[in-house]
Inverse folding.
């Protein structure tokens, strides 16, 4: 049985993790400038904390991928285990977003049995076993099963729309439980905007690959029952990002981070709010992972900025 912190203890623990996190603004500037950089350089410049030096212990590209994955998987696993109810469930469901792209890729692959996917950050690996080996997943994943179109005939857009809709509903459901303990309005706003942008990014990437036509973000937001006050925020962010899609789509994550951070930073201003601190940390880590991966893999593959997309 894992040790659970009190809400006060959890607040302190999350605050420490935030303080130990890299400066994303400076990390994104490194990527944007295309200057030579790696983990060691980032540590020596004070952009990344010394705790990240574990990522230096690699000899091959595969080692680097494994170390980055294990570093963050361990962080999320410990965070979930320490959080009191229902905050631990919030962590568990939030990080499912890391794996939805993998799930969609397997579901839509014509040769899924030949796929070997690793690096699942959350707990959605059973869905891949279901898709590849027809192994029935735990009942808690039933909502996702309806999205996967195992029998065929489902479009890419339908699959992604359904997966993100289920993801939204699962996390918002936990936020409703948290709301019995403390106000969640700030975190709910950031989470909705963050999630809608995940759909927007998928549409943009597919558009660049000429896989499907444009889809209005506002229409999708309404279909997943997004409160109107959040839709406008997400649409405004997406409109700002559109010009960057045309200029240099490999830097879209950099520009998205800067736009989202304007919302995200306000979560730190709520005194004694565990849910706001936790939401800040989780969204921060979502954007942090590709930047740290970029630095960790830099010496093996050079400055391929597309890593951040």
């Amino acid at each position: 049985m894992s040790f659970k912190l009190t809400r006060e203890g959890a607040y302190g623990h999350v605050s420490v993790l935030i303080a130990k996190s890299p400066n994303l603004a400076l990390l994104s500037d490194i990527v944007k400038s295309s200057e030579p950089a790696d983990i060691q350089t980032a540590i020596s410049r004070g952009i990344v904390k010394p705790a990240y030096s574990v990522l230096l212990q690699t000899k091959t590209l595969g080692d680097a991928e494994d170390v980055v994955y294990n570093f963050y998987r361990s962080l999320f696993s410990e965070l979930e285990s320490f959080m009191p109810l229902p905050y631990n469930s919030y962590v568990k469901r939030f990080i499912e977003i890391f794996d939805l792209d993998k799930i969609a890729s397997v579901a839509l692959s014509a040769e899924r049995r030949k796929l070997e996917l690793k690096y699942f950050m959350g707990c959605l690996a059973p869905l891949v076993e279901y898709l590849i080996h027809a192994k029935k997943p735990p009942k808690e994943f039933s909502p996702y099963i309806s999205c996967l179109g195992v029998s065929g005939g489902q479009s890419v857009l339908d699959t992604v729309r359904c997966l993100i809709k289920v993801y939204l509903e699962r996390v918002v459901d936990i936020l409703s439980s948290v709301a019995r303990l403390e106000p969640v309005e700030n975190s709910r706003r950031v989470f909705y905007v963050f999630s809608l942008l995940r759909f927007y990014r998928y549409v943009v990437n597919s558009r660049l690959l000429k896989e499907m036509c444009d889809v209005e973000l506002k229409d999708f937001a309404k279909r997943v029952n997004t409160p109107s006050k959040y839709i406008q925020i997400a649409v405004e962010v997406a409109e700002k990002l559109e010009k960057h899609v045309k200029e240099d789509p490999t830097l879209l994550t950099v520009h998205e981070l800067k736009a989202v951070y304007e919302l995200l930073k306000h979560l730190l201003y709520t005194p004694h709010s565990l849910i706001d601190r936790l939401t800040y940390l989780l969204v921060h880590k979502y954007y942090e992972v590709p930047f740290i991966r970029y630095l960790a893999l830099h010496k093996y593959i050079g400055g391929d900025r597309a890593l951040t997309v």
Remarks:
- The chain is about 65% helix and 0% strand.
- Residues 305-309 have pLDDT under 50 and may be disordered.
